[in-house]
Amino acid sequence: MNRVKDIPKESIKLYVNHDIELLYSILSFSVAHDEDTLYSPKDDVNRALQLLQGIEDKLKSKICKEWKYCIKRHDPDLQDTITLIGTLSDVIATTVIGLPPTLISIILFKKGLNTFCKCDPHKKPTKQKK
């Protein structure tokens, strides 16, 4: 497994404690570059949800299929929230070019990665082949 060398720990710690609606607003604001755009919490959430919906298939392919999250979720090195989010940010960085991977990773974490990847909660971890 690739190890994260420079996890943006302070950035993750700063955002991980925010509620999901604020994170949606931050995501919306981070991609809106129109000076004439009016920001409102409801519009920000809707804009972020549309954005995430537009890349959901790519994220599922990268996280759930290629990276095999349902297996990796049992990795002892990924039990720490900050490490998991930092690693996930690295995993999706090339998939979300132009978007903040750390913020998207935090949102996915808060929404629930097990649900996102449809992991079987009863399936026991198996040893990974190296």
Amount of helix: 55-70%
Poorly predicted sequence stretches spanning 5 or more consecutive residues: 1-5
Strand content: under 5%
Shape: globular
Structural class: mainly alpha
Return the average pLDDT rounded to an integer. Answer: 86
Radius of gyration: 15 Å
Secondary-structure element pattern, one letter each: HHHHHHH
How many alpha or pi helices? 7
Largest sheet: none
Instruction: Compute the number of strand runs.
Output: 0
Distance between the termini: 8 Å
Please describe what this structure looks like:
With 130 residues, this protein is an all-alpha fold. 59% of the residues lie in helices and 0% in strands. The chain contains seven helices and no strands.
How would you briefly describe this protein structure?
The protein is an all-alpha fold. The protein has seven helices and no strands.
What would the keywords be for this entry?
globular; mainly alpha
Secondary-structure topology with pairs:
Blueprint: H1 9-16, H2 20-31, H3 41-66, H4 69-72, H5 81-92, H6 101-111, H7 113-116
